[in-house]
Fold this sequence. Notes:
This protein is of the alpha+beta class.
Amino acid sequence: MKKTLLILLLFALIGCQTIEKQNVIEQSLNQGWTLTGDTLSINMQVDVPSVVQQSLYDNGLIPHPYLGTVENQLLWISDHPWDYTLHFDADKDLLDKEKVELEFEGIDTYAEVKLNGEKLFFADNQFRVWKHEVKDLLKKKDNLLEVYFLRYDSTQLALYEQHQPRLPEKYAVSRKAPYQHGWDWAPKYKNVGIWKPVKLVGWDAARLEDAYIVTKAANSERAELMLHLDVESDEIIDVDIEVGVSTGSTTLASRSLSPELVEGSKGRQYTVLPITIEKPQLWWPNEMGEQPLYDFEVRLKKDGKVLDAKSFKTGIRTFEMVDEPDSIGRAFYFKVNGVPMYAKGANYVPEEMIETWINPDNTLKLLKMAQEAHFNMLRVWGGGIYPSDDFFNICDSLGILVWEDFMYAGTMYPYDETFLENARIEAEEQVKRLASHPSLALWCGGNEISEGYYNWGWQKSLNWSEEDDKAIKAGYDRLFENILPQAVAQFDGTRPYWPSSPSKGWGRPESLAEGDVHYWGVWWGELPYEVYREKVGRFNSEYGYQSYPDYQTLLKIAQGEELSKDAEIIAAHQKHARGTRQIDDFIQRYYPNVHPRDFEEYVHLSQLSQAYGMEIAIEAHRTAKPYNMGTLYWQLNDAWPVTSWSSIDYYGNPKVLQERLKTLYAPVLLSLDRKDYGVFVTSDLMRNIGGVLTVTVCDNEDRPVFEQKMNVALEANGNRKFVVEGLRDFLQSAHAAFVKLQLVEGESLTAEREVAL
Length: 757
Ligand code: BMA
């Protein structure tokens, strides 16, 4: 009789049963590697995860890549072959298993992998997991695992040159972090190495390849979750699935579920099962509510014995992207648990140029600073790397939603079947990996690709024929309109997909009427900060202005060299061609009467200027709610010590902007309309407001010269402008320096702000 996969679902209480996991055995292969530099007499003992640049530094063979002016001395590393070898004995129990797989969680990037002299595979995508069956090759003693890295730069160049028609950027041909190829805030540190853990996994009968949960629908009465399961077995066998769930204090009652087999094949069973939870505690973004997380444990059983188990946390919430026609264009905003959310936050770039230096302690510090500045969203920008599980766990616990770009940025991509297949596998793996995180809000195709195609003149500059152009655009459509959304729909089924950020280039009027916009007219177009007041889109997902990092940071990188605007060290840590000049222009423009006594004061002034510009932008965005429903400035953080658009520098020092966000992003923002001197009360609170608004005008010696109090009332999540009797006439006639705004409800201070006139 043909056996079929039988899935039974039982709810069990976590902790009632000890799990014997011997069916699946893992052996870590992270320790004891030898890294050699091919023709160079470099021989280092290293552990992985690590990259060559890091090991060379650890062994004293290169200077610190972030200090001084060393970039050019380090560029050879990515154009050199590197060989990682590991001799190891196999764990005895592992050898007895029916199946044994070698698993690399990440290889960066072009490498041939051999075990005991046999080639297993050629890795060509930093963002994929690489696995291979090794049961037949594995010996008890002295196995030899080799990972031979090709010269990255030459390999990439050869691929690029083969590609006809020409693509805008060389990095387009490699599935490797774009920013490492040099960016307007990044040096060209193309990491090479085994950047994620390596292990052997052995099992008998079957194992759980994947288990994750997404929220399909939820309100305070009921949640409908979907449990995605991927069961791997050699034979088609009968197994049971058991699911346990608890939230620390509450344990949920048992229920029986009806399994729905989505796809079944010998050896691999992909199944999605509905789970209902009554009276769920909903997860909310920062300042909209709490972030309760449920502990799930999924067990795979056969004949009463646990074959494999996976535990993870998830939060229950719904997330919708609204993109629908309205009287002005198309509304674009997000709803969480049915409530429209005004998104406040920034763009996030990788925290390190040496990717294996990223660590959860620093991530937690950074994201806590974001949370304290009232962030509820970060956009993980598509030119970096997909963040680790740690990053998402932190976002889950802090209530910071993640707009996640797929890692594509600023170029068109190859469209041959091999490239697209590689992209498909990468997307599916990443979608599955991140699906259980309540903080994962939406998937976006990538950064400034559609904008580039329509606005940056590649057709001309790269001399594309009409056919070339057609083929490239068709390739774009396959990847960004088909393969990526298909991966999201099939393996998640709940997250919205947005093909490109921004949806329209900032030079086009539609960019302000629909979708998201990267408004770069101030930095790239060199227009004054005040222009931000007019360029308010439906969702401003990028805009920004540069400033120097903290002076202490500059002292550190200078290592005793003298600092000045024109110092070599400053130029080496400024990656935008016009950066130094533009910072200076705006200092002259906005602070003509301030004469910094030294470079330290000048550095501070650059931060004041940046903060001033961002204040104008953020105020314009928030006071335009609900026309505008989101503001994510460029950029939260830095990947190394650098002059950039960030609000927190590489060493975690807040710039002036970061401090000012505590007011600018506060749940209630008070602002003065510069046209008619009305006062905006802009609220992201989930409750109505009723209180007294006090407006005090002061002269330049801080003496009050006008005061008016008025009762104000505002609905939850509302935004309204109040006319303050007499204020307009007073300000037009009198000499005043600034206005203090204060909103008090009962005895408590709801919001306060001081605005310079
Ligand atoms: C962002 C990043 C920035 C850049 C900006 C404007 O997406 O690429 O580094 O300055 O776009 O193009």
